[in-house]
Amino acid sequence: MAHILWRRPHRCDRRARGRARALLLLGFGGALRRSELVALDVEHLEETPEGLLVLIAKSKTDQDGEGVTIAVARGSSEACPVVAVREWLDVAGIEVGPVFRPINKAGTVSAERLTDRSVASIVKAYAGRAGLDENLFSGHSLRRGFLTSAAAAGKSIFRMMDVSRHRSVDTLRGYVQEAELFKEHAGAGLL
Question: What is the tens place of the pLDDT at every residue in 91-131?
Fold first, then answer.
C-alpha cells in the first residue's frame, strides 16, 4: 500500500494540475469570464517583463469582436499566472491554437477547446480540495474573486475596470461593496 502513496504522479495528473493552475491563476489575474478563458488561443498571449498581455478577441460585452488587450500582472513565485501558463503550454506541448484543452485519462491533450462548463467544474473541484464548500463557487468566482480582492486591497476602481472591462462604475460597485461590508462599520466598537 505504501508504494501507492509514494508513486510518482501519473502524466495525466501532472498535466491536469498544470492546466488547472494556469487556468485558475490566469482567470483570477485577468478577471476573466469562463467563456473568455476557453476562447484564448496561444496567439492571444504575449509575455512581457511586467506580465502577460492577453487579447480578449470577443466577449459578452464585445459581441462585434472588436477585441481588447488587457494586462495580467506577474504574481509571487507560488502564484504567477505568467509562469503557470508558460509551464502548462510547455508540459502540454501546445504551440498554437487553444490554450486550454481537455486531457483524457491517458494524459493525452486534445486539440479541441475546453468547454466553459469544464472551467466551472475545475473551479469547484479545486475549491473543494482547498477545504472550501465547492457549492459556493462557479466559473464566475475567478472574476468575482479578483474584483473583491482588489477592492479589499484598496485598489483604484478605475484600474480594476481596466482589467475587468466593466464600462459602468455602478456595475462594479457591487463587488466593492461586498469587499467593504465591515470597513469603517458604524457599529464597530459600540458593543
Answer: 999 999 999 999 998 889 999 999 999 999 999 898 888 89
Catalytic residue at 10?
no
The answer to whether 143 is a known catalytic residue is: yes
What pLDDT, in 10s, does the model give residues 159-183? 877 787 877 777 777 767 665 655 6
Residue type, 150: A
Domain ranges of the chain: 7-179
Say whether pTM exceeds 0.85. no
* Catalytic residue list contains 140: yes
Q: Judge whether 166 counts as a catalytic residue.
A: yes
Instruction: Supply the DSSP string of 8-19, one letter for each residue.
Output: PPPHHHHHHHHH
| 74 tagged catalytic | no
The CATH code of the domain at 7-179 is 1.10.443.10
Active-site choice (17, 44, 74, 140): 140
Each residue of 169-190: b (16+ CB within 10 Å) or e?
eeebeebbeebeeeeeeeeeee
Residue 178's Cβ-side half-sphere holds a number of Cα atoms within 13 Å equal to: 12
| Active-site hit among 19, 21, 143, 165 | 143
From the list 33, 113, 124, 165, the catalytic residue is 33
- For residue 167, give the amino acid letter: R
Dig out the grid coordinates for 2 from the structure: 505504501
